[in-house]
Write a structure and sequence with these properties.
Structural class: alpha/beta
Order of helices and strands: HHHHHHHHEHEEEHEHEHEEHHEHEE
Largest sheet: 7 strands, mixed
Shape: globular
CATH topology of the largest domain: Rossmann fold
Low-confidence stretches: 281-292
CATH superfamily of the largest domain: Vaccinia Virus protein VP39
Strand order of the largest sheet: 7-6-5-8-9-11-10
CATH architecture of the largest domain: 3-Layer(aba) Sandwich
Distance between the termini: 72 Å
Helix content: 25-40%
Strand content: 15-25%
Amino acid sequence: MNRNYSHLNSAVQIVNKYKGQEPFALFLKIFYSQHKKYGSKDRKQISHLCYCYFRLGKSAPSIPAGEKILMGLFLCSRESNEILAKLKPEWNDKYFLSPEEKCSMINDQFSPKESLRTMLSVFPWKNELSEGMEYEEFCKSFLIQPDLFIRIRPHHAEPVLLKLDATGVNYEVIAPFTVRLPNSFKVERFFNIDVEVVIQDYSSHQIINFLPVDHGRPVRVWDCCAASGGKSIMAYDVNPNIELTVSDIRESILINLKKRFAAAGIKKFKSFVIDLTTAHSPPDSYRDTTRLPIAIGTSFDLIICDAPCSGSGTWSRTPEQLFYFQKSKIDHYASLQKRIVSNVIPHLKPGGYLLYITCSVFKKENEEAVEFIKKNFRLDVVKMELLKGYDRKADTMFASLLRKQL
């Protein structure tokens, strides 16, 4: 009993101390490094309790943290739980109920003002969602930790699957190149990352279906918000003849990309640092690359714009971001995205393609951004899709392929 209360009290201490200023995983790492008394099992249990708290999102704001943690634990549990068995046995006996039935049980203990009511209070911005989102299912998805996904790179399918069989792990192959794994699986222990496989969410894998393919000639590609470079590696895997240019606002990103591209076999590419919200480059940003942004030219066959966004389609992985998100940020990101696409489209050649991507569920960042592009530039939509992952234990993304008129 004492250990269970101790874990709960530690979780309360942590969530009350955390203010959302850095990723919660990083905050936990620092916290545990400062408090050596916690063993590995303690850390795992306490961390889980904290995440259960954040998975309730915007719901039940007036309920004390300890009660809310137990509520989250009950709603997230798919089997009997030691802490619930000790502290809330009447809930633990009903772990198999649906989220709606669990909410009804919880609500019996609180006044209407304080109650959880329904799972719909977790995500309060229903009217802001992209078309096609099933609101109730999306809300319930926050109670589930998404799976881990890897993309098998070309010519590595057979050895990767043999290695997976040897591990004894339960996995699912989603044709033609995606593998679903338990979230706790340590990919780096068994595979050469970016050589054999790329760690990438299921919905990100679907972006391959938006990439225009022309194997007959080199294709000039600019990944303008390159970040970790996953889309660049995917474009290279589709067509190794691409002439690749990458950019980002952070020089550290480009330094990391060089290492990642080396592992992936991408030997020739150009890179530069640029703030595409202003189209101005930070000082000393062209150490080993293009000298001026305009030098990249105006003749790209494909510009990949994986735009900075709210990240709302990934919040089931990082529920603390849902907990701290403010609605005003939707307009902030929508404005950011419009400035970026306005600065990159002039570098697209007639007949060239713009691939616009977000990991957002908000229409202002998705469909309305595409409407802005169509209205203000001579681009037509070739393909557009909300890549729903919340019903697959995966992220949700949005992608639109547009072509510049000749």
